[in-house]
């Protein structure tokens, strides 16, 4: 469940990239294996979250998951 109380309606596995944005804006991401996630938010601000927990949806709207700086695995974006 996302922070606004709604459920995700779709998801897809992400291949992290330092050059390519995702095909659309996503409302959050799921991590299968814990680690750091470096991302570009929809506001154009880049950030890195460390020790991101596995097995849950993290409510952050993103347009890119970077490969450099991301150690988490099995990342899926959700909307």
Layout of strands and helices, then pairs:
Blueprint: E1 11-13, E2 28-33, E3 35-41, E4 46-52, E5 57-58, E6 62-65, E7 73-78
Antiparallel strand pairs: 1-7, 2-5, 2-7, 3-4, 3-6
Plain-language structure description:
The protein has 79 residues and is mainly beta. Helix content is 0%, strand content 44%. The protein is built from no helices and seven strands. The protein has a four-stranded antiparallel beta sheet with strand order 1-7-2-5, with no helix packed on it. The chain is globular, with a radius of gyration of 11 Å. The N and C termini lie close together (11 Å).
Overall, the morphology is globular
Assembly category: single chain
Helicity level: under 10%
The average pLDDT is 93
Structural class: mainly beta
Strand order of the largest sheet: 1-7-2-5
DSSP helical segment count: 0
Beta-strand fraction estimate: 35-45%
pLDDT < 50 stretches: none
Total count of strands = 7
Please give the alpha-carbon distance between the first and last residues. 11 Å
Largest sheet: 4 strands, antiparallel
Features of the shown structure:
79 residues; globular; 7 strands; four-stranded antiparallel beta sheet; mainly beta; three-stranded antiparallel beta sheet
């Amino acid at each position: 469940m996302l922070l606004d109380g709604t459920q995700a309606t779709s998801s897809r596995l992400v291949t992290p990239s330092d050059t390519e944005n995702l095909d659309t804006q996503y409302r959050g991401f799921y991590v299968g294996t814990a680690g750091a996630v470096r991302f570009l938010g929809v506001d154009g601000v880049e950030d890195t979250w460390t020790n991101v927990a596995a097995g849950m949806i993290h409510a952050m709207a993103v347009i890119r998951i970077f490969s450099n700086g991301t150690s988490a695995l099995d990342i899926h974006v959700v909307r």
